Amino acid sequence: MYVAMGVSGGEEGARKGPSIMPGCPAEAYAALEPILQKCAAQVDGEACVTHCGAGSGCGNYVKMVHNGIEYGDMQLIGEAYTVLKMVGGLSNEELSNVFAEWNKSELDSFLIDITAQILAKKDVDCINVQTNARNEDDTSRYMVDMVLDRTGNKGTGKMTIKEGAEQSTAVPTMSSALATRFISFEKDVRKKMQGVLTGPDVPQVEDKGMLIEDVKNALYCSKIMSYAQGMNLIREASKANEWNVNLGECARIWKGGCIIRAGFLNRIKTAYDRNPTLESLLLDPTFSREVLDRQRAWRRIVALNAQIGAFQTLAPSFYQPPCALFCLLTMCRCVCSQACRARPSPHPCRTSTCTGGRLSPARRSCRRSVTSSAPTPTSARTSPSARCTTACGRRRTTPPPPTPTRPTRRTAKRRCCESGRPWKRKAMEAALTGWDALPPCVKWT
């Protein structure tokens, strides 16, 4: 039996125990469990290891999403630092103290802790690689101010974003974090553009205390979004591949040994233990109440980010309804596409209203009438899949390929018009099914 394991922890995990995410048959995990529990990090008397699922790749998948969350987490901290530095005018010492205080609150996490330490680090503590000696000539420089603002990526963040698209799951926080890395890497191009393009003056605030509190609330809400997106992606992949991943257990084993370990993972585990079928962390009463209590401060920081030109990973668009114009343009594009494809069709339900790959009620009723009517000539007969694709405006000249016994996610997407599966976003669905069906939030008043 093959056992694949995602392992997170780095050099510290190698010494003190990592977070281990194995994916394998249950009997294989049962044989290895005593060894893995001894090797894994220990938190609150429990080993940070669990059987992620029966699929040979599910443990690596959970680890990949862990890295995607890590990307988002680090970018969010970077944006919080930028706002406090540029707008609040806080010194590195003040920033270090702020992050140290935050680490005693609901933001308690490994990344917040090391951020406070990094911001306090002086350049004199660093080793000159050429002379192999300490830089003792100048004690006024902070290390953070000496680091080149350029970074790369190992590829796990990119894989997470690709999987988000593959599973039709929104991961905007991770996606923005990855885009920022790409922008960061183009240091030479950015320097040239900065000489040509200049932004507005950075606003200054008088009440630093309120700014710090607002940034803290915005950061906490955004962290909830990042973890919610990661859990959603694991859940969708688990459904598609029949892994049966326990999301509460994922949160538990991330409490120690890994980069994203944080205090509020206990509450994420509690949320999934309370409701194992929870569709999103934002639907848990505890988290939804916390976001509602903090969202005014959150939105103030997002507006401030726009003013100073900072990247918008902090934005709360993850749970907002889609833009009305986007919905209308999508609808118009579908209508235009069908008009361009207008040609004689044997299907009586071919209309100009697109439902995004689903059969409208009229088409479904017509399809039932077609399938239940008298036998048609052999030349006009088609399979149910062929009739369905004809109804959606995508005629097949050859029979569709045989459906595998265990459909993949892509196969499920191809068959969505057969099943009539509704879209998850009700606002978008309403916009795509007809002009008059637009919800009040996207109508002109």
Quick rundown:
With 445 residues, the chain is mainly α. It is 54% helix and 4% strand. Strands 1-2 form a two-stranded antiparallel ribbon. A two-stranded antiparallel sheet has the order 3-4.
What does this structure look like?
With 445 residues, this protein is mainly α. The protein has two domains: 60-319, N-(1-d-carboxylethyl)-l-norvaline Dehydrogenase, domain 2; 325-369 and 385-393 and 412-445, no CATH class. It contains 19 helices and six strands. The chain has a two-stranded antiparallel ribbon. It has a two-stranded antiparallel sheet with strand order 3-4. The chain has a two-stranded antiparallel ribbon with strand order 5-6. It starts with a strand and ends in a 12-residue tail after the last helix.
Number of strands: 6
CATH topology term of the largest domain: N-(1-d-carboxylethyl)-l-norvaline Dehydrogenase, domain 2
Q: Provide the CATH superfamily of the largest domain.
A: N-(1-d-carboxylethyl)-l-norvaline Dehydrogenase, domain 2
Which residue ranges are poorly predicted, with pLDDT under 50 across at least 5 consecutive positions?
324-328, 339-396, 407-425, 427-445
Overall structural class, as computed from helix and strand content, comes to mainly alpha
Mass-distribution shape: globular
Estimate nothing, just give the exact number of structural domains. 2
Largest sheet: 2 strands, antiparallel
Average pLDDT, all residues = 76
Classify the beta-strand content into a percent band.
Answer: under 5%
Give me the side-by-side strand order of the main sheet: 1-2
